[in-house]
Amino acid sequence: MNDTVNRVAAKTVTDWPVSEAAAGAILTIDLGAVRENYRRLKARLGDVRCAGVVKANGYGLGASQVASALTSEGCDTFFVALPAEGIKLRKAIGAGPDIYVLNGLPPGSEPEAVAADLCAVINSGAQLKAWSSAARAAGRKLPAAVQVDSGMSRLGMAPAEVEALAGDPSAFDGIDVRYVMSHLACADEPRHPANEQQRQAFERLRAMLPESPASLANSSAIFLGPSYHYDLARPGAAVYGINPTPGEPNPMLPVVRLQAKVAQTRRVEKGAGIGYGHTYHAEGPLSLATISFGYADGWLRRSASAAWFEGVRLPFLGRVSMDSIILDISALPPGRLREGDLVELLGPSQSVDDAAGHAGTIGYEILASLGPRFHRRYVGG
Ligand SMILES: *Cc1c(COP(=O)(O)O)cnc(C)c1O
How far apart are CA 272 and CA 263, in angstroms? Predict the structure, then answer.
């Protein structure tokens, strides 16, 4: 990613009005890597269409920037979680691409969804009725995907509900069913028996619904093989550089780089108490750097870990504060790290998946937690 960042630095844009100089940390998002990841997924999918999942502001990285980058690769279908996200995305990317709302339309949101030309994901009989009446009110057919619960017990129509609808074709009046879809619970564990069980349940359920193209695969399921691909894949994580094949080398390019500024450096003597609660005491003289980055920036307080500078690991000492973290920089030559210098939290020395591993969480949570006050820099767009 370094190379890409350097090559396109001149075209850098930002959506954060505060200058890089005034910010405490800098988040660089490589849209060239986003595009390359999308191309790699498409190559695996062959003729199968590939959507882009941009819920939660594009996994924290900017839904409109990511969607625009994917659009330039020919992507014309996006998924968000909420109508509010869809309305915002529609304003940003304009008319044309399909935007599906995964969590379904909450009662009363249908008129706004119609106005923003969103596609409903229909998760229940009640949502089907509501979208059907919205179609009557609009005087035209409205687009939708019907989601069935093939065994995750989260969203989508239960088998009994699908069976009830099977005998009532008028239930779909006014609705243009573009996909029947479902979601896998264990796609990141290729040998998990639930994958094949869900796939077969999906087959049975979709046979009862109006004949339409099908969609099952998230990022990891693309790597389970062609029998999981159907007509449309819905990757999110892999587009953002999260490894869709945990335990194996990451087939994706890293997308984010997160750097924090050194606010101050100091020397302390043996026995000095470090940070809130004095949870750490210096076992000898130490060189410390305090960086302008803390749990308010989304770095989980439990994920005590390390930053990096020129390939040298700088462990966190003591507790993570709201706006700062104390690093042990004793491994660097004295005076090497100075106020205003940048250390790396995510990037070539520490991937999103590495950081997640240290924090006992998943890359998704690391990205989606990234805070609002970084200077955000988009490169490679
Ligand atoms: C979030 C989500 C996706 C994308 O999943 P990734 O694991 O990020 O690729 C696809 N489908 C549904 C229903 C989702 O909720």
Answer: 19
Do 105 and 220 share a domain, yes or no?
yes
- Probe ligand 1: pick from 195, 234, 242, max atoms within 8 Å of CB? 234
Locus of tokens 């470090």 = 274
Beta strands 49-50 and 232-233 are parallel
Transcribe 140-178 into DSSP letters.
S-EEEEEEB-SSSSSSSB-HHHHHHHHT-GGGGTTEEEE
Tens digits of residue pLDDT in 14-61 = 555 678 999 999 999 999 999 999 999 999 999 999 999 999 999 999
Ligand 1 pocket (Cβ < 6 Å) reads: 53, 55, 102, 183, 218-220, 234-238
276 is catalytic: yes
All residues at 6 or more sequence positions from 354 whose CB lies less than 8 Å from its CB, including other chains: none
Residue 109 included in any domain: yes
Write down the catalytic residue from 55, 59, 295, 378: 55
On whether both 208 and 66 belong to a single domain, the answer is: yes
Question: How close is the Cα of 52 to the center of ligand 1, in Å?
Answer: 9
* Domain limits for position 289: 256-350
Q: List residues bridging with 264 in a β-sheet.
A: 290
Handedness of CA 109, 114, 118, 120 (dihedral sign): positive
Q: What six digits make up the tokens of 47?
A: 């003729």
Kindly state whether residue 7 falls inside one of the protein's structural domains.
Answer: no
Residue 27 pairs in a beta bridge with 258, 376
Residue 287 and residue 214 share a domain: no
Reported as a single tens digit per residue, the pLDDT across 251-309 is 999 999 999 999 999 999 999 999 999 999 999 999 999 999 999 998 876 565 899 99
pTM score of the predicted model: 0.93
Residues 6 or more apart whose CB falls under 8 angstroms from that of 111 comprise 134, 137
pLDDT tens per residue, range 212-249: 999 999 999 999 999 999 999 999 999 999 999 999 99
* Tally of domains in the chain: 2
* Residue 304, both tokens: 């005590």
